[in-house]
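My current task is to audit a protein record that another person submitted. What it holds is a sequence and that sequence's fold in token form. Thanks in advance; the entry in question is below.
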Amino acid sequence: MLLLFYCNFFIGMYFGITKPYKNRTTNTIELCNEMVVTSICYFALIFTDFVQNVEQQYSGGWMMIYLVIFLIAYNMLIVLRTFMGVFGLTYLRFYNRFEAWWRKYKK
């Protein structure tokens, strides 16, 4: 589990330093996703034998759930924003075509 934590941490550092994508937004999204996954891996360490307190494990479990919900909501908002942008451009294209057709039809 600790190895997975360090792998995610170093991958996040790699994305933060090299910025492998051309788009700044994509780099930011990827860095945010890696940091949340690293945090989830950190909280997964709570469920090992290192922590004997059950209340801490319970609180850590809820924190993991909150992080997963945040990650899902964050990525869904990105998908919806992208969809709305594509939908808006498609709407404008067909609206302009319809408007040109309507002007021609009225004459």
